[in-house]
Write a structure and sequence with these properties.
The complex is a heterodimer. Chain A folds into two domains: 2-61; 79-300, MetI-like (MetI-like fold, Orthogonal Bundle). By secondary structure, chain A is an all-alpha fold. The longest helix of chain A is centred in the first third of the chain and has 59 residues, at 3-61. Chain A contains 13 helices and two strands, in the order H-E-E-H-H-H-H-H-H-H-H-H-H-H-H. Chain A starts with a helix and ends with a helix. Chain A has helices spanning 3-61, 71-76, 79-112, 115-126, 133-144, 149-156, 170-194, 198-206, 211-239, 243-249, 256-266, 270-294, 297-301, and strands spanning 63-64, 67-68. The radius of gyration of chain B is 24 Å and the shape is elongated. Chain B is of the alpha+beta class. Chain B has helices at 47-55, 97-107, 112-125, 141-153, 171-188, 199-205, 223-228, 233-238, 332-338, and strands at 9-18, 21-31, 36-40, 62-67, 70-71, 82-85, 159-163, 191-196, 208-213, 216-221, 243-250, 253-256, 259-261, 274-279, 285-286, 295-308, 311-318, 323-329, 344-350, 355-357. In chain B, the strands form four sheets. A six-stranded mixed beta sheet of chain B has the order 6-7-8-3-9-10, sandwiched between helices. Chain B has a five-stranded antiparallel beta sheet with strand order 13-12-11-14-20. Chain B has a five-stranded antiparallel beta sheet with strand order 15-19-16-17-18, covered by helices on one side.
Chain lengths: 304, 362
Amino acid sequence: MSVAADLGAGRAAAATVDATTAGLRRDDRRERTGFLGLSGPALFLLTIVVFLPVGWLFWLSLIEGGELSLAHYARIADATHFRIFWTTFEISVVVTSLALLLGYPVAYLMSQLPTRWANVCLIFVLIPFWTSLLVRTYAWLVLLQRRGLVNSTLVDWGLIDAPLRLVHNYTGVVIGMVHIMLPFMVLPLYAALRSVDRSYMTAASSLGASPVRAFWTVFFPLSLPGVFAGSLLVFILCLGFYVTPALLGGGRVMMVAMKIQQNAGIYFDWGAASALGVVLLVVTLGIFWVIGRLLPIERLFGAR
Amino acid sequence: MSRAHAESIDIRSLTKRYGSFAALDAVDLDIAGGEFLTLLGPSGSGKTTLLMVLAGFVRPTSGAVKVGGQDLTRVPPHKRNFGMVFQNYALFPHMSVFDNIAYPLKLRGLGREAIRGKVEESLRLVQLEHLAERGVHQLSGGQRQRIALARAVVFEPRVLLMDEPLSALDKKLREQMQIEIRHLHEELGITTVYVTHDQREALTMSDRIAVINDGRVIQVAEPAALYNRPADAFVADFIGESSMLEVTANGAGYSFQGRPVVAVAAGDGRAPSSGFLVVRPEKLELFDATMAADHNRFDGLIEEVVYQGETLFARIRLDEGPHLTLRRTTGREATRAIGAAGGRIALALHHEDSVVVPERRA
């Protein structure tokens, strides 16, 4: 074969390689477009149900009498509204803490049981979800009222002389909310606790740690991601909770969601309601930003 | 690191039943102070169960475990003061390397300075002083292995237990760690019980090996004795390569397909009435007339010759029917002497190397 023919063949081969490379690059692009296309519906939905309403909320809160103004915000910068926000955050913190205290042992038990029994427990945790929120709240009203089951039992047993005030107040709201929130705490906790490798506890024990010591020095720190996940979920749900505090608080406990309902449903003051919503959103984001700065969560658990 | 006071372990008729299944069936085992003993067996043989009973994580159905004369059968694991290395290392992911090793010392209430000194000493022992402040997730497999080892010995435990600690490492690293663990054992002089299913690992590392199958100890012996004088066909087959030729007792000796065979007794010194002649491929020699007096002779046809790098492997069909395998190092001479597939070959096995074992040890 001549040198020229060799060169020609070489050039032809190079051209084929170039064509293939270009083709591969096209395949890459098509794949990326494909991914974008797949996430399209979700993005569209998010736009419809999140970005547009939140944007509209912001817009409404800035309109007073058809003109742009900060009047709504000025009006809620008073002691009454401050107390409403304070109550909301306080109840949310108390309910989250109690749900954690009650939910952790349940999740721990479930995480240590064989899968079969853990699943049975899981069903018990989930049963409340299949009952209407309103029904569960009214059930508490029945149980906790002056002549309710709880009070009459306590009086019958001679533990108390007069019925306790368990409902239509702060106590009632907290009891009801903790009950409603428990599954939201237990489920993420259970998932996190289940993923803690048992060999860590075995190792701690072999190194001389008593079961209690091993729990606090090894198991609990490793379960913190679950604790954060569950607490975050419950805390956020608490902030916007309406039905249970409204019914069990008997009008004595005012949370932000109830004030928003009042403004929108009774006074038809959409601007004021929107302003409250915006402030709640901003304060909540602010709190998480601060917590995120204070707690080095990633460093605590090590990047995997 | 100060030399640990080596304590002996006595295991007495230890039994663990799960329903009707006996994971451990009346196991008796004496482990001398300072000894490196390996529990070797296939998966499901009960070797890990035995280790877990020793560590206190599995409660035996009956029997006793004594360490240094003290009965520990009912002592909970955290009060046994045994060091343990786990298959997956079980290093705490939320602690640095230093805190992992310091953990058992903190539990024992040592002061800050004492802890620092001991942790550093322990890290020096495994040659990883520079990694003290690292997170566990930043370590390679081999490094995790060594840190786990450092953590298991830093509190000067009475006994060191290891549960297949090298199974997650690649072959080269595993062989290197086998030697390192062996050296560490020599340096510390601590009684060590090591679990593995890898017979080569067991032969490399152990003072003695206990072969376990179906929840029972089949044979306990030093590596060479175990290899050269297996107690039964299971041990012979599990450890190393071997061909088994069925033989029957014939007066003082044995006969193989009617031909007399001279053999020595199995590992436990008893001569079975019938059983198998264990033929190790590397113990076979090429027969020549001078060997007739002290060798058994086997004639056959070479079916296959396979080149495997440092060794050559040949499959030979004996005239009597059964097959033997022959293994020779690949020197120029050896290759030529064996010949090619299809040729005839005469093999010799020294009487001392001819071991007859029962199918199962009684």
